Amino acid sequence: MGVVAVAGGTGDVGRTITEQLAESGKHTVYILSRKLKEGDSPIPGTKLLVIDYSDADAIAATLDAKAVDTVISALGLAGGEGQLKLIAGAKKAPSTRRFIPSEYAAYTPPDAEENEFTTDVLRAVDALRGSGLQYTRFAIGIFMDYFGIPNIPSHLSPFVWVLTLLNAVLQYLVPELKLYQ
Ligand SMILES: NC(=O)c1ccc[n+]([C@@H]2O[C@H](COP(=O)([O-])OP(=O)(O)OC[C@H]3O[C@@H](n4cnc5c(N)ncnc54)[C@H](OP(=O)(O)O)[C@@H]3O)[C@@H](O)[C@H]2O)c1
After folding, report:
1. Of all protein residues, whose CA lies closest to atom 18 belonging to ligand 1?
2. CATH class, range 2-141
3. Which domain of life does the protein's organism represent (predicted)?
4. Omega of the bond leading into 150 within 30 degrees of 0 (cis)
5. Closest of 79, 41, 48, 82 to residue 66, by C-alpha
């Protein structure tokens, strides 16, 4: 039985992670949130802790007070500065040993060249490498939910897709057509 804190645990991806952890009944589950009220969790079986992502010492105190051993980050857009502070706080918290950064990579390989989608991811990985925390990165591809919403249950926000299957087949058969350029 672990004590897990999910940062952004009511967001699109975080909500599913939090619900599944709570449903498993195997862990004590906290949600870290900037906006929601302490104790007032919308997800059954979990409790809410208010967090200030600008203060690593306060984050460490919050995590240690609840004996959190694992932090799962599901912050939006791979977390930015807030996630770096969360890593710094987890590093300082005596109880915290493990960290999962917000990544869940849709279409970039885990160690892709730096670009607008990977900058925050790579900064978090750098911070984790030197932290002494045990960490795991998840690179999962695109959630298939997007192809089923609204006909399947999902917490993800709807996304509009345009699939050019004919172009893809033609490009494969006749590469010199350069249909994507
Ligand atoms: N593979 C895929 O297909 C796929 C699809 C979607 C997302 N993702 C990835 O999954 C991760 C989570 O994305 P998401 O769409 O679930 O995020 P989201 O719903 O936009 O945000 C999740 C939570 O993060 C907190 N948050 C948002 N902005 C923040 C900020 N600037 N600083 C601190 N906290 C902030 C908010 O919680 P509070 O307001 O309660 O603090 C929010 O509810 C991202 O890394 C994203 O790239 C992957």
Report:
1. 76
2. alpha beta
3. Eukaryota
4. yes
5. 48
Question: Cα-Cα-Cα-Cα dihedral of 72, 77, 82, 84, to 10°?
Answer: 70
73 alpha carbon – ligand 1 mean position (Å): 9
**Residue 113 three-state SS:** coil
How much is the pLDDT for 114? 73
Distance CA 175, CA 113 (A): 26
pLDDT tens digits for 127-177? 999 899 999 999 888 899 998 999 999 999 998 777 778 888 888 888 887
Asked if 59 and 30 touch (Cβ cutoff 8 Å), the reply is no
> What is the per-residue pLDDT for 181?
47
* 76 CA to centre of ligand 1 in angstroms: 2
- Determine the distance separating the centroid of ligand 1 and the alpha carbon of 26, expressed in angstroms: 24
In terms of residues, how long is the chain? 181
pLDDT tens profile 38-68: 777 899 999 999 999 999 999 999 999 999 9
Structure-block tokens of residue 24: 């498993």
The mean per-residue pLDDT over the stretch 69-88 comes to: 90
* Beta strand segments in the chain, E: 2-7, 27-33, 46-50, 70-73, 98-100, 134-135
